[in-house]
């Protein structure tokens, strides 16, 4: 288990009326959690893509940046 923290969201509109929403989140996972920058994670009900390289913080844990794009 770990903790998920919500991040910001940005919305962009197109001339055709469509909207794209980018939503960010951060997961704080236990030390030793194996995650690659190409992975996806389910965070309560939503699937996010890992962005960048997960940061190993020694015995404290792993910080994982996530993004979900809709629209």
Model description:
This protein is an all-beta fold. The chain contains no helices and six strands. Strands 1, 2, 3, 4, 5 and 6 form a six-stranded antiparallel β-sheet that branches. The protein is elongated. The model has no long low-confidence stretch (mean pLDDT 90).
State the gist of this model.
The chain has 71 residues and is mostly beta strands. The chain contains no helices and six strands.
Tell me the number of helical segments per DSSP (H or I, 4 or more residues long): 0
Mean pLDDT: 90
Radius of gyration in whole Å, from Cα? 14 Å
Terminal residue distance: 30 Å
Q: Describe the largest sheet.
A: 6 strands, antiparallel
Based on helices, strands and strand pairing, what is the structural class?
mainly beta
Helix content bin: under 10%
Query: What oligomeric assembly is this protein in?
Result: single chain
Secondary-structure element sequence? EEEEEE
Give the low-pLDDT segments: none
List the helices and strands and how they pair.
Elements: E1 3-13, E2 19-29, E3 40-43, E4 46-50, E5 55-56, E6 62-70
Antiparallel strand pairs: 1-2, 2-6, 3-4, 4-6, 5-6
List keywords for this structure.
mainly beta; 71 residues; 6-stranded antiparallel β-sheet; 0% helix; elongated
């Amino acid at each position: 288990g770990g903790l998920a923290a919500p991040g910001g969201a940005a919305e962009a509109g197109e001339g055709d009326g469509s909207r794209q929403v980018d939503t960010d989140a951060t997961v704080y996972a236990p030390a030793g959690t194996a995650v690659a920058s190409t992975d996806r994670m389910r965070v309560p009900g939503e699937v996010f893509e890992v962005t960048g390289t997960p940061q190993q913080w020694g015995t404290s844990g792993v910080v994982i940046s996530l993004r979900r794009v809709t629209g």
